[in-house]
Amino acid sequence: MSYNIHHANPPSRPGEIDLEAIARVIRDQKADLVALQEVDVNTGRSGTVNQASALAELLGMNFYFARAIDFDGGKYGVAILSRYPLSGMETMSLPETAAPQSEDRVLATATVALPDGRMIRFGSMHLDVSNAANRLQQVQAINQVAAQEKRPFILAGDFNDMPESAAIQELDKLFTRTCGSNCAPTIPVDAPTRTIDFIAFTHASGLEVVSQQVVPERYASDHLPVVATLQFK
């Protein structure tokens, strides 16, 4: 699953936090691996709660949080949730030289030990919202990391860009998006018109898509979650 959780603030309830609603969405989809974006850790606006840890506890999952910026007395960034053991967790800062004033962005990655003993690499990211050239640079940096990865590599997150954009076209050079050429919109939740949240895997991963859907969950966040089932060929 890829899910921008809007720091667990339902759009219809300004200023309120509902972590259980986010957990329910993940639980209902029976997701094994989740890439989260817009996660608060110990910020004032979210009641000084470590949202990554709290969601992991609610769901009985392992987690890794990657700080992008300091915010409101705490940290803000992306996270990984996993039903399987995690190791080799890393946070990589993404470039923003085209517009250095933009909010800092990161890629979080971890090695996941699957039940059959196979190991994969899983990544969660959130690209720049304001500058297309930054987004292109950030995807190029992610592609460089993925090209060096010997394990199957799954990437998920909020790309803040549409399928026809330069950034997504760059992504497609190395990755296969689970939605293929028929990518349903993920934002805004009330009447979705834009497809900016994706799950993808490197061409060399040996994976194929069993199913893919955008979940019509309109309360918990301002993004719709994306869920895909993958299998090894």
From TrEMBL:
GO terms for cellular component: membrane
Keyword Nuclease: yes
GO BP term (any one): GPI anchor biosynthetic process
Keywords, alphabetical: Endonuclease, Hydrolase, Nuclease
Lineage: superkingdom: Bacteria
One Pfam family here: Exo_endo_phos
InterPro entries associated with the record: Endo/exonu/phosph_ase_sf, Endo/exonuclease/phosphatase, GPI-anchor_lipid_remodeler
GO MF, one annotated term: endonuclease activity
UniProt entry tagged with the keyword Hydrolase: yes
Descriptive protein name: Endonuclease
Gene3D superfamilies according to UniProt: Endonuclease/exonuclease/phosphatase
Endonuclease/exonuclease/phosphatase domain boundaries: 1-223
Organism: Pontibacter mangrovi
